[in-house]
Amino acid sequence: MTECRIGVVGAAGRMGRVLVRLAATTPGFSLAGGSERPGAAELGRDLGSLAGIEDQGLALGDDPKAVFAAADAVLDFTVPAATLGHAALAAATGKALVIGTTGIDAAGEAKLAEAARQAPIVYAGNMSLGVNLLAELVNQVARALDPAWDIEIIEMHHRHKVDAPSGTALLLGRAAAAGRDAKLEDIADRGRDGITGARKSGRIGFAALRGGDVVGEHSVIFATDSERIELTHKATSREIFARGALRAARFAAGRKPGLYRMKDVLGL
Length: 268
Ligand code: NAD
Description:
Blueprint: E1 4-9, H1 14-25, E2 29-35, H2 47-50, H3 64-70, E3 73-76, H4 80-93, E4 96-99, H5 106-115, E5 120-123, H6 129-144, E6 150-157, H7 167-179, H8 184-187, E7 188-190, E8 204-210, E9 216-224, E10 227-235, H9 239-252, E11 258-260, H10 262-266
Parallel strand pairs: 1-2, 1-3, 3-4, 4-5, 5-11, 6-8, 7-8
Antiparallel strand pairs: 6-9, 9-10
Helix pairs in contact: 1-9, 3-4, 4-5, 6-7
This protein binds nicotinamide-adenine-dinucleotide (NAD).
C-alpha cells in the first residue's frame, strides 16, 4: 500500500489538530503540511507540537497552495468561505479534497459540484462510520413506516458550534426524507417558537441543543400513537471523524473527478 500524503487546511482548529495527529501517526499515511487563515495566532508553529505529538519538522503556514502541492489529498474542516477557496484550488490542481465543513449553503454546494468536475471531492456532514450506518437505518425505517409516524431529529453539540441544525442532523433528515420519496427542504421544520399550531403530518422537525463539550449526539425519533422508535448515535471523540476523513482521503486520492459521499467511501 503506497503511503498517502495528507495536507490539512485549518490545521489549528479543533478538528484540524486531530487530523494532523492521526495523519502523522496512522500507518499508510504521512503528514505533508498544514495551513491556517492569514493572521492566525498559531502561524509558524510546528504542526506536531500544535497537535500534541512530537515535532514534525513542518511549520503551520498560511498558503493553502503549498499544502495542495505537497499532498495527495487535502482535508478541510474549516468554515464555508474558506472551503470554497480550497475547492477552487482542488479544481485548479486536480488534487483530492475531503470536505467536512458544515453550514455550506445551496449556492456554495453548487460551487463544490462545479469544482468536482475537475477534482475528486468527498463532501460529508459527518465522516463517522456509525453515523453513516445510522443514516442507512433511518432511511429504511422511514420507508417502512407510513406518514402517521412523525419524525423528529434532536441533536446536541458543544457550546462553540456556530451552525444549527448540525450538518449531521441535516444528513439524517435527508435520509429520512428520501425514505419518504421527498426532499428535505420541502418538509423540514427547522426550529419551533411561539404559537406554531399543531404539528403538520409528514413534516420532519429539528431541535438543536448547545452546551459544554459534547462532541455530537443525534437522535431520530419516529413517534405515532402508543409507540415510539428512537435511533441514537453518540460521539465521544473527534477521532471518529478524523478516521473517516483519512479513509475518504485514501478513497479519493488519484480517483477520477466527481463529488463523492461517505456512502461511496464506505461502500454502504
Ligand atoms: P474550529 O473553529 O475549531 O476550526 C476551524 C478552523 O478553520 C479554525 O482554526 C480557523 O482558523 C480555520 N480557518 C478559518 N478560515 C480559514 C482559512 N481561510 N484557511 C485556513 N483555515 C481557516 O472548528 P471545528 O470544531 O474544528 O469544526 C470545523 C468544521 O468542521 C465545522 O464546520 C464543523 O461543523 C465541521 N465538522 C465536521 C465533521 C464531519 O464529520 N464532517 C466533524 C466535526 C466537525
